[in-house]
Amino acid sequence: MFQQILKNIARHVTLTSEEADEFCSLLEVKQVKKRAHLIRYGEICDYEGYVNKGSLRTFFKDPEGAEHTVYLAIEDWWISDLNSRIYKTPSRYEVVALEDAEVFLIRDEALEAFLAKVPCMEHFYRKLFQYSVAVYQEKLLQAHQLTAAERYRYFRNKYPEFDRRIPQKYIASFLGLTPEFFNTVRSQVLKKE
C-alpha cells in the first residue's frame, strides 16, 4: 500500500527497512470523494499529505466569491497548507478532490518526532520544500513575463498528465485566466502543435 510514497522518499534519501516501516506506521489513510474537502477554509491544517490516488486542487476565494486555483496535485505529489501548519492559524485555502482520492496524512507531531529520530528525513523535507518554493517562484515569474499562450504551453509540456486530467476551468484559474480566454488560448496553442 505504501510502496509509492516510499519510492518518492527514496529519490532523495535511503531509509532502513525499520525506518520505512516506522514511517508508514505513522501514516493515516484518508479517502476523499470527488468534490469533498481535504482542507476547509477556517480549519487548522496539522499534517502533510501525500496523494496516493486521485487529484486535488488548492484554491481561495476573493471578496467577490471568485475562486483562484493556486496548486494542483495528482498521484505522487505532496499537499498541505503550509502557512496554517507552521503558524497554527485557520486555513485561508480550501483543498478539494477533483477525482476520488486517497491521501496519506502524517500529523505534525508524529512527523517532528520522526524527523528528530531519523535525521536523513530532515534532508528529504528540506528538498521537498525547496522544490515547492522553486516551482512557486517560477509560477510568479511566468505570470509577469510570459503571455497566456506561453504559460499554457509551459504548463502543458511540464505537466502533461495534469493537462489530460484536470478540468480546463481549473487549469485556466491556475494560470490566472478566465475560462473563456483560456479556451481561446488553448485553441491557438493546439492548432500550432
Automatic annotation (TrEMBL):
Span of domain Cyclic nucleotide-binding: 30-117
Q: Which InterPro entries is this protein grouped with?
A: cNMP-bd_dom, cNMP-bd_dom_sf, RmlC-like_jellyroll
Among the Pfam families in the record, one is cNMP_binding
Q: Which Gene3D superfamilies match?
A: Jelly Rolls
The organism sits in which domain of life?
A: Bacteria
Q: What is the name of this protein? A: Crp/Fnr family transcriptional regulator
Organism for this UniProt entry: Chitinophaga solisilvae
